[in-house]
């Protein structure tokens, strides 16, 4: 396919992508949008001009602050509408010859402000990379028995804080809380000194289910709209003191960062790969058929204030031990109901080699092995005014589909 809109060969937003997001356009109004190259397209204007009349929708779902109304239409609408948008962007389309609509609906990326793409009713964070779980177990428990007994039998997860999920470009403050610097001594209050990122991906659900219903691994992808990049910020010193017996609390809820573009499962279809062999054999409700992992390249960079970026991690989503279908099946096997816009993070994504570890905790091995940046500075954890950027993209047979990036600067604690 060839679009009439030019873009670089290494653009994340090729004609094969067609992601969805929400933008505040030229400081005037919000609208649901898509993107090709560096051009952002106002879908609400295309709707008003009749380009989506064939779908016979009662109202303009793209005149919204979030994608939830569009996602809620279901795949019977969202899949063919994405394909329609793709056709409109091809050479020789009616849209190419409609200069008035292009003038009013097409905007340069620098002239829009990207917003959080969905209202997130509920947020769940999983713990599904066997390499990450093993590394953490080696650091803090018995190295010979790094994984807890349940880990290879179910996708471990916990419910997080939805209200503090923010879009890329939103700065976060270093959190305060209780820590225990000295073992067997009383805790102290103050700012976290071991602030960390966690490299993750997240999926968004597109349906409502009733309390008491469950979703099978076979049907799970029918309930998933798409994916985005997720940075699960973590205050390791706060977490270490508070997590027993109920898990992280203040160590996580001060903020999580996501990329502004949701890439659909349909766009990711060519990049399916087999997941790791799961041993021991999982219970029947977690068994699945076909390739459920995706070959998504991942990178993390750190930029000190006014300094060049240093890439410190190269990983891949294909390493995940538990796939999205298993995560959603397990999440609902007890009858937990899901909602449109729910966000489910993968858990930190780490590979087998040190360069692919998805957190500073692992990269610096709990602070014992500092990382050297391009400017000569060292890091064991994230410092004030550092900016952490995460990138994700797929590439195969000359086709590239990417997620853009999620970028966050850390400000000093109040």
Q: Count every helix, treating DSSP H or I runs of 4 or more residues as helices.
A: 9
Query: Which ranges are low-confidence, i.e. pLDDT below 50, for 5 or more consecutive residues?
Result: none
Let me know the largest β-sheet. Answer: 8 strands, mixed
Question: Considering DSSP H and I runs of 4 or more, what fraction of the residues is helical?
Answer: 10-25%
Features:
8-stranded mixed sheet, alpha+beta, 414 residues, 5-stranded antiparallel sheet
Could you give the topology of this structure?
Blueprint lengths: L20 E5 L3 E8 L2 E4 H6 L19 H4 L3 H14 L10 H7 E3 L3 E4 L7 E4 L3 H11 L16 E3 L5 E3 L4 E2 L2 E4 L8 E4 L3 E2 L2 E7 L18 E8 L2 E2 H7 L13 E3 L4 E2 H4 L3 E2 L19 E2 L2 E7 L6 E7 L7 H9 L10 E3 L14 H4 L7 E2 L5 E2 L7 E10 L2 E13 L3
Parallel strand pairs: 6-22, 8-16, 9-26
Antiparallel strand pairs: 1-2, 1-5, 2-3, 3-4, 6-7, 10-11, 12-15, 13-14, 13-22, 14-16, 14-17, 18-19, 20-21, 20-25, 23-24, 25-26
